[in-house]
Amino acid sequence: xxxxxxxxxxxxxxxxxxxxxxxxxxxxxxxxxxxxxxxxxxxxxxxxxxxxxxxxxxxxxxxxxxxxxxxxxxxxxxxxxxxxxxxxxxxxxxxxxxxxxxxxxxxxxxxxxxxxxxxxxxxxxxxxxxxxxxxxxxxxxxxxxx
Length: 146
Prior knowledge:
Mean pLDDT: 87
Strand content: 25-35%
Strand order of the largest sheet: 1-2-4-5-6-3
CATH class: Alpha Beta
Distance between the termini: 21 Å
Radius of gyration: 15 Å
């Protein structure tokens, strides 16, 4: 992950930072136009007993969308995000995360994220977000469209 300004690593990020002792330690990759990851929540990620806290799902979805940009060399911040919880996520249940670009207007990038159960593909949560890219020069290398 580098650009003209050199490598940028978010080592302390709660979701993906390898140096965050209480973080989720998710890893992200680009594949077929999407950013992908896996998240298996544990007992410390619960809200109600046996059900994963919605904030944990939000954080994972926010990061899979943000990393669509980050892995392409563009730093961006979440300007707006809306999430819809469709099914409860459970402790120990592996979730497949996917983030895709749905639109772009200057420094604003529209994204969509999904979380599905790995076991059967059931949609657990969806999110839509707008990200503001810090430097339009970084955005120049980001593919437009979906």
